[in-house]
């Protein structure tokens, strides 16, 4: 049997190497490694058969966009080479956002003395090398026993806290813009879901920002800080913030009860885990908008419009409703059975990329269990997981973990979507910056299937 390398195989098929490897991951092609253990080799006969047959009809058209922001592994993403679940519970959301926007290893270093938020104690410096050995997540740290930005509670409890939050807290400036966004919501229904409010807030903040058309990286980064702060601070307050971080302020907008330190750690972990996910549907839409040189607010508004769909970020709201139906763990079997009988999807389960489980969901659920051991909502969630396994249905994903966090914390309906949206704003802007630099319009083509052209 003749074996050819990836470049030759891609050229014969007329596709990019990324598409070739997508065929491998979907079982369309087989490959083996060369004697050096690094090169990928493909059967020349199999490549020839596929070339003659054309694109597999069962496979959707493959859109490949080069990006240095996020890589997807078997069960988890990597932000510019760093294992994301490894950051959960230890890294500040603000730090992770800065990493996505800049790729500067300096974001992981502790701030100068007196520069950090008072209640945080900075972790060790770390040096990130995303491309080492070509493996996602390759990174070195001054203390390999600590994760980037790891820190402990200043009170000595040892609870995981967030670090690397250098400088002043993020603020929406000018204050007039924030007040305008708050005022714009006065006529809205009191029970409106937070995600719907975020779309109104984004529109008003954008209209109030005279710097929104500055599309250089530094300006977009500054806009990102202002925008995320505004998204959070313009939501109606339900309790007093326990600090100045985005996680602490967002908690006070989504929950009428003060957060325990472990639950706040889980909240920030959710923000970190959801900050980006390669070319998810909302991110692709955001990139298309950015390729047309839409300003950052318009990019985020585009992403928000897509994110609310039940097959995307809206799945967490569906999972919230699912858990709400299960008053006691013994009800889980009946609730799942009824949904299966009606032919409905089980929200919070299955993933188009992670076929054998979503590592982000596992990481977040672990933190929630540690934060609230023995909680009744966790028991209900465990009953759902057991019933899904009994039926051999897909494994849980990050949306189910997000719904569990909302239920355990006593947050308002739709809180999971709001956490998702605030977090993903960081990723949308990171991808937007790549499109601004690329400078060409993303223009997809349709495969026409209509009546014959006359």
TrEMBL record:
Pfam families to which the protein is assigned, alphabetical: Citrate_synt (PF00285), HTH_17 (PF12728)
Q: Which InterPro entries match?
A: Citrate_synth-like_lrg_a-sub, Citrate_synth-like_sm_a-sub, Citrate_synthase, Citrate_synthase_sf, DNA-bd_dom_put_sf, HTH_17
Where the record annotates domain Helix-turn-helix, the positions are 4-54
The annotated region (Disordered) lies at 112-168
Q: In the Enzyme Commission scheme, what number(s) does this protein have?
A: 2.3.3.16
User: Could you tell me which pathway this protein works in?
Assistant: Carbohydrate metabolism; tricarboxylic acid cycle
* Family listed: Belongs to the citrate synthase family.
A Gene Ontology biological process term: carbohydrate metabolic process
| Keyword Hydrolase recorded | no
Q: Give the protein's recorded name.
A: citrate synthase (unknown stereospecificity)
Out of the domains of life, which is the source? Answer: Bacteria
Q: Which GO terms describe its cellular component?
A: cytosol
Any GO MF annotation of the entry: citrate synthase activity
**Enzyme class, first EC level, given as a word:** transferase
Keyword annotations for this protein, in alphabetical order, are: Acyltransferase, Transferase
